[in-house]
């Protein structure tokens, strides 16, 4: 745990257009991916735990049973990732604690990965996941970086902002590069038993 605490935002608003079904509701070991991400996030003991939903919001919300979860409904989810990040940044605008941001579809993600991000943040002041040649989710960012999401538009995240930072811990776990965006990704994840 960080001395001043931390917040967690789970991005679960996407429409999964390329996959053709809601990836948030896919299952691993009988648990929906969105419920699994909420459970893993809660295990980091955040001060605030938030989930941004949009597409199929009712079904995604119904899949999660966590009393401390704050749900933000993003009516602009079709705009892309930036709109969900803006909603989260607005909701946390008065917070000074850092924020961990997760997606729903990194099927290999485990609690030790998140704990390593927390440790990396404590040492460096910013922590990202190395996904091949790029930096991506999950990330742990200070409040000033999250606030820059307010200027984002389209289907972009904080990657450009994070690329400018050199004081960053990078979690390098190759299997986290597999997220479920297409039918081929689904086949690969099932072959590795990361999805039912």
Automatic annotation (TrEMBL):
<feature type="domain" description="MobA-like NTP transferase">
    <location>
        <begin position="8"/>
        <end position="166"/>
    </location>
</feature>
<dbReference type="InterPro" id="IPR025877">
    <property type="entry name" value="MobA-like_NTP_Trfase"/>
</dbReference>
<keyword id="KW-0808">Transferase</keyword>
<dbReference type="GO" id="GO:0016779">
    <property type="term" value="F:nucleotidyltransferase activity"/>
</dbReference>
<dbReference type="Pfam" id="PF12804">
    <property type="entry name" value="NTP_transf_3"/>
</dbReference>
<dbReference type="InterPro" id="IPR029044">
    <property type="entry name" value="Nucleotide-diphossugar_trans"/>
</dbReference>
<keyword id="KW-0460">Magnesium</keyword>
<protein>
    <submittedName>
        <fullName>Molybdenum cofactor cytidylyltransferase</fullName>
    </submittedName>
</protein>
<keyword id="KW-0548">Nucleotidyltransferase</keyword>
